[in-house]
Design goal:
The protein has about 375 residues and is α+β, with helices and mostly antiparallel strands. It has two domains: about 20-40 and about 50-160, Orthogonal Bundle (DNA polymerase, domain 1), CATH 1.10.150; about 175-360, Orthogonal Bundle (hpI Integrase, Chain A), CATH 1.10.443.10. It has helices at about 20-30, 55-65, 70-90, 100-110, 120-140, 150-160, 175-180, 190-205, 205-210, 260-270, 295-310, 320-325, 330-335, 340-350, 355-360, 370-375; strands spanning about 215, 225-230, 235-240, 245-250, 280-285, 290-295. The protein has a four-stranded mixed beta sheet with strand order 1-2-3-4. A two-stranded antiparallel sheet has the order 5-6.
């Protein structure tokens, strides 16, 4: 680690292996005025022969394909956050120093990092740490996350600030039906939103999976799956998810009004979509279909908007209700309401373990197995 002359020196910065009062150290560093920070060191890239430049470009495309667009955006934002913090402290970023990262973690946890108005949550800090590790590795200078200056501080942050996960409210079948009634069937936007809600619920799909679908196979380079409609049975959704390719079967509903297959067919027919992205932007007061694929944030906004309009969880204030619903509400709704063997729900959601599936089941009987009575008490 290298500090400028203006930067305060502490036991954490001078080579002492101990890190006493790390929060105080970070507070002191944040309060100091360091002037103009030194430029960040450039990352050297060896020049390639001309005949390999095209191959290098293809390699970069594969690197991008290794992670989702959301992950890349988060990693880029976290790297910018860390870079800005280092500049403010007058600290060089390379080579990556575990002590510096330990100080940064403490700054995030105490709410004194760059631009933070309040302490970061534990999950946010863990994501930032993952982002730092990934970015350092891409620059050929790996960060040792097991180093005690990082691992011990992170363990302390978890013990001090960790809280039970805040789960989104499950959209149950009766809620979904009420939400569908709030949509205008006389507009293409209403028909599109209807198909998105029903497909997302019945398939237990993530919001990125919903908007990543194409009409057919290999139709767009950024598509992450496609649909196949079978006349009598239903539709088959083929997805490229977090754990690889998987298939999701969505059967026909008990009535056309709540059938995801009918809703999708109606949208495709009236929107005149036969190729490319399945769900697209609609303009012109809900009557003109564009060519651009929807952003996954649109799914979260749709769920929230329709749930509020339908009065779901009307026992809560509007502010509390707004925080309860998001794209995951659809997945949680299927997991909570499908009265079938748990392994089928697990397969539909694409979970590697039954325990993960149970986290989505909001109204399962947690006391179905009573070990107290089973033990003889």
């Amino acid at each position: 680690m290298s500090l400028t002359d203006d930067a305060p020196r502490s036991s954490a910065a001078s080579g002492d292996d101990d890190m006493p009062d790390i929060i105080d150290v970070v507070m002191e560093m944040d309060d100091a005025d360091h002037g103009s920070p030194p430029p960040l060191p450039a990352i050297a890239n060896p020049s390639l022969p001309a005949h390999l430049e095209a191959l290098a470009g293809r390699a970069r495309d594969y690197i991008e394909a290794a992670s989702s667009a959301n992950t890349r955006r988060a990693y880029a934002a976290d790297w910018k956050h860390f870079s800005s913090w280092c500049r403010r402290q007058g600290i060089e970023m390379f080579p990556p120093d575990p002590q510096v990262v330990g100080l940064y973690i403490a700054a995030c946890a105490s709410g004194t990092a760059t631009g933070d108005k309040k302490p970061n949550t534990v999950s946010t800090i863990e994501r930032r740490l993952s982002s730092l590790s990934w970015n350092c590795a891409q620059r050929g200078q790996p960060l040792d996350r097991k180093d005690r200056h990082i691992a011990t501080v992170m363990a302390g942050v978890r013990n001090t600030h960790a809280s039970p996960p805040r789960q989104k409210e499950a959209i149950l079948p009766e809620d979904l039906i009420a939400m569908l009634e709030t949509l205008d069937r006389g507009t293409l936007r209403g028909l599109r939103d209807r198909a998105m809600l029903l497909l997302g619920f019945a398939g237990g799909l993530r919001r990125s999976e919903i908007v990543g679908l194409d009409v057919g196979r290999d139709q767009t380079e950024i598509g992450r799956g496609w649909v196949e409609i079978f006349a009598d049975k239903g539709l088959l959704v083929t997805l490229r998810g977090k754990t690889g390719w998987r298939e999701v079967e969505i059967g026909r509903g008990s009535s056309d009004a709540t059938c995801p297959v009918v809703a999708l067919q109606t949208w495709l027919r009236l929107a005149r979509i036969a190729h490319g992205p399945l769900f697209r932007r609609v303009a012109g007061q809900g009557r003109a279909v564009g060519v651009d694929r929807l952003n996954d944030q649109e799914v979260a906004r749709l769920v929230k908007r329709a749930a509020l309009a339908a009065g779901v969880r009307g026992d809560l204030s509007e502010g509390e209700r707004a925080k309860k619903f998001a794209g995951h509400s659809l997945r949680a709704g299927l997991a909570s309401s499908a009265e079938v063997d748990e392994r089928y729900v697990q397969k539909q959601l694409g979970h590697a373990s039954a325990e993960m599936t149970r986290r989505y089941q909001r109204r399962r009987d947690r006391f179905r197995i009573n070990l107290t009575k089973a033990s003889g008490l």
